[in-house]
Amino acid sequence: MDDQSYAIPPRADLTFAQLGQMIRKRWPLIAGFTLMSVVISALVAFLSKPIYSAEVLMMPVAVNDASSSVSGFGGQLGGLASLAGLSLGTMDDRKAEAIATLKSRALTDAFVSENNLLPVLYASKWDEATQQWKTAPDKVPTLWDAYKRIKQIRKLDEDKKTGLLTLEVDWNDPQLAARWANELAARANRLLRKQAIERADRNIGYLRQQINETSLVEVRQALYRLVETELKTAMLAQSSEDYAFRVIDPAVVPQEKIWPKRALLLIVGLFAGLFLGSLFAVLSGVAAAEKHNAP
C-alpha cells in the first residue's frame, strides 16, 4: 500500500491506527535509524577513555579545647582578642574555612606545580619524547587552565546528617585518581596546620607586647591566659596531622570504572534510534500524504 491508497486527515485528527500504519510501512527507515544510533553508542562505549573514581571519607575536626578557651575570654577582652586576630570561630566556621581551603586556587596551584601535573592533565598537547608542548606558545596550558580542569574532576560532597565529607577525584588512571585524592586531603591539612601555627605565633607576639605595655594586674593575668591558649593551639597544630580533616577512609585504587557504562549506552542508543526513526517515519508520512491531498 502506498501513500496514495489512503486518505490522511489533518495532523490533529490522526488516529493511533494511522500512526501505526505509517510506522509499519517505513520500518526500513526506523531500522536504519536504530542501527545507526546503536553503532554510535557502541563506538562511544568501547572507544571512550575509561574514567575511575577514588574517594576519601573525612570528618571535620571539632573545635579544640584551646579554641573554646579563647571563646570564653572573648567576653572579657573581645576588642583585644579581635585586634590580636584570635580565633573565636565556631565549628561551622572552622569547617567552612577547611572546605574553602580544600577548594582554593592557592592549594590547587601548589598541588599542580609541585607535582608537575600540567603535562598529565593535558597529555594530548604534550610530547613525552621531546618533553615539550606540541601547541603554539600562546596555547600552552597554564595554571589557570589547570585550576578549571581540577574543578571538573574534583568533587566534595557533605552529608548533612552526619557531617561527613567525601572528596572524590575522577580520572582515567585509577592509581593517579587515588593518589591525588589522598594528597589533596593531606595538603589541605598541612596548609591549615601551617596557617594555624603562624597565626598563633603572631598572636603570641602581639599579646606579649601588650603584657609589656600594661601595668594593670588583671589585664596582665588575662593576657597571660590568652598567651597560654595560643600556645595550646600551636602545640595542637604541630602535633596533629589531621588538623582540619580526620581521614576516616583513605582513597584506594578503584577497580571499576564509572564511565563509560557500556550496557546503559547501548540501551539508550537502541531506544533513541527507535524513537527518532519512528518520529521521522510519522513526519515523512504526514508530509507525503499532505502533498498528495493538496489540490
Characterization of this structure:
The chain has 295 residues and is α+β, with helices and mostly antiparallel strands. It has 2 domains: 3-48 and 262-293, no CATH class; 51-257, Bacterial polysaccharide co-polymerase-like (2-Layer Sandwich). It is built from 11 helices and 7 strands. The strands form 2 sheets. Strands 1, 4, 5, 6 and 7 form a 5-stranded antiparallel sheet that branches. A hairpin with a 6-residue loop joins strand 4 (154-158) and strand 5 (165-171). Helix 2 (27-47) packs antiparallel against helix 11 (262-293), helix 3 (65-74) packs antiparallel against helix 10 (217-239) and helix 6 packs across helix 8 (143-153). The longest helix is centred in the middle third of the chain and has 40 residues, at 174-213.
Summarize the helices and strands and which ones pair or pack.
Blueprint: H1 16-25, H2 27-47, E1 51-60, H3 65-74, H4 78-84, H5 91-103, H6 105-114, H7 118-121, E2 126-127, E3 132-133, H8 143-153, E4 154-158, E5 165-171, H9 174-213, H10 217-239, E6 245-249, E7 257-259, H11 262-293
Antiparallel strand pairs: 1-5, 1-6, 1-7, 2-3, 4-5
